Predict the structure.
Amino acid sequence: MVDAVAAQVRGTRFETGWGELAPRVAAALREVPRHAFVPAAARGDAYENRPLPIGYGQTISQPYIVAIMTELLDPEPGDVVFELGTGSGYQAAVLSRLVREVYTIEIVEPLGKRSRATLDGLGYRNVKSKVGDGYDGWPEAGPFDAIIVTAAADHVPPPLVAQLKPGGRMIIPVGGPFMTQYLTLVDKDAEGRVHARQILPVRFVPLTRKR
Ligand code: SAH
């Protein structure tokens, strides 16, 4: 799986400006057992470089996408990261190998519960999770060094921009359900000015709101 991800990273170097799978990201991908995050029926495909269904109409992201989003966040060992969209918990687990703490929110309750059980079973204690609407971020835990959004939004949620530290970065797929979504890198400079750059066309499940 990691070899396939590395090959795809090389193949998309002109779009992403990033041609080699970083050793630390490769190590995290090797360490986290992806099969533990997918339902039994999909387990045989767990180490294929593709997204897989996890129930409730949701998916675990393709490992290449996990790798590229992780790399674009430029995670440092002391960082505290927020994730919107826990899903299976896989992306949070990968990040947890590279940073100090991950705070993650899932809106679909059974998925939030299942991912918590998976993360606990594997001993990923630096991942804090809860069920709720991640659009509002996690103000008590922020501000964050980095933010990762794993559901597509038609705009960058202002509460998440507010919870990003100066010098911090956010990676988020932006685009409506019937439009091309772009993985977008948002960064906040030391003066608090925000810049956004489109990286790659992608397809994510939509960000939903609490009804
Ligand atoms: N990071 C996940 C990918 C899950 S797909 C993984 O590694 O498996 C995106 C997830 O975002 C879905 O589970 C979906 O239910 C969730 N989601 C969508 N809108 C949300 C919101 N407003 N707040 C929190 N989670 C949300």
